[in-house]
Amino acid sequence: MSLLKKVMAKNSDLGITKDYIDYYRTGIDLFDYMNGLVSSSGELLLGVAAGRAIQIIGNSGCGKSTITMQFADNIRKPFLNVGAPVVHYDYERASSKERIMNLTGMTVEQYEETYSLLNSQIHTESFFNMCVELKRAKLGLDPKDPKKIDKEAAAMYSYTKNGHELVIPTPIIIDSVASMMPKEYAEDTEREAGTNMLGAQTAKINGVLLKKLLPIIEEANIIPIMINHITTEVSTSITPTRAQFPFLKQGEKVSGGKAVHYLTNTLIKLETTGKLSADKEYGISGYIVTGTLIKSRSNAAGVPFEMIFIQETGYDNFWTNYHNLKKMGLIGGAGRSFKLSTYPEVTFAQKDAKDKYNTIPAFKEAFDIAVKEAYTKMTLDLDKIKPDDLYVAVEGETNLFMKDGLYYELKDGSYVEVEVEVV
Fold first, then answer.
1. Residue 85: which residues within 8 A CB-CB, separation 6 or more?
2. Which of 54, 391, 386 shows the shortest CA–CA distance to 247?
3. Each residue of 96-125: pLDDT tens digit?
4. pTM of the predicted model as reported, rounded to 2 decimal places
5. Quick check: helix, strand or coil at residue 246?
6. ω into 2 cis (within 30 of 0)
7. Which three-class secondary structure state does DSSP give residue 342?
8. Short-list 305, 340, 297, 259, CA closest to 412
9. What is the rounded distance in angstroms from the CA atom of residue 179 to the CA atom of residue 92?
């Protein structure tokens, strides 16, 4: 036995190794692969990690709240047989039962039983205390005696995978970080809102509570999905303002203080980069939204990817996959003669592609295989990316990047080399 193992064997308070972390699919294949990784055993893990926080940032109208609700519902969906819930703290009072049901496809009964939209008398402590109570309930802990465990209660909220006993996930939506305030400030009607001092005080108190949450969310497999806003700082200084994170534009800021970003395992930036019209191409009204992993502890950050956002129904997995297969050259054609290169037997107009997918099993199977193969290759390639391979934002510029000594601009989701006069 090694020295370290001898020491560890004598004292259980020195810590333990958690050597298996499960991953959960979000309902958007492209994101799941972009954030995926290859484990030490060679297993391809897709989606988001158990007991880790996600933060989604972007400007107004890019679908932050929409994708958050869709992520949360899909993460817990495999565990609906045990009533796996979604907890939704709507600090902005912007969501509704009808919108949530429309985006997720939940029945009234499923919504009433498993989705909690909380939008009154809520504050930072509400979120913190909810996590504490969920941990007690899911692990079968006695509030009066933490060492006493109700094994029958704990078994209700556990599952086994690859020989590991795991706790079912509980997504908690925070909408938004900027509107989440400690109780003493939320209930103080005389305190002036919107001031820098109040923001700093709020961030400080929130930070203390959020740091305490790290071991709690990990043990109870709670997945906070936090929505945050991007603001642009206007500087009159000659010296450009340093970007808050790599891959943010110069002057862009995200609220909430350092603790929020410290807690975050995956940070996604959304930006609307194109418009879709019902009378063109795909026959849908919506937007092309470019996502960028600003921070990822499972794969390369800074790589943009495009998703399809439909105004009525939210982010669409099929159309996102179709759009990217087309970009990869696996779907091509014109008029009514578009086809999948690996299954040319079926031709279609683009607006009819989803109907073909839903009604022709052989085409659906070929399409899904093409997605899996293309995205798997992409994930493996991303997993090999080194820091030197990434495009780094040029300080003081809004859309200028460097790689290997050359300059690039981001156009239509791709980096294009440009000439820059160096003064």
1. 76, 114, 115, 116, 170
2. 391
3. 999 999 999 999 999 999 999 999 999 999
4. 0.86
5. coil
6. no
7. coil
8. 305
9. 6
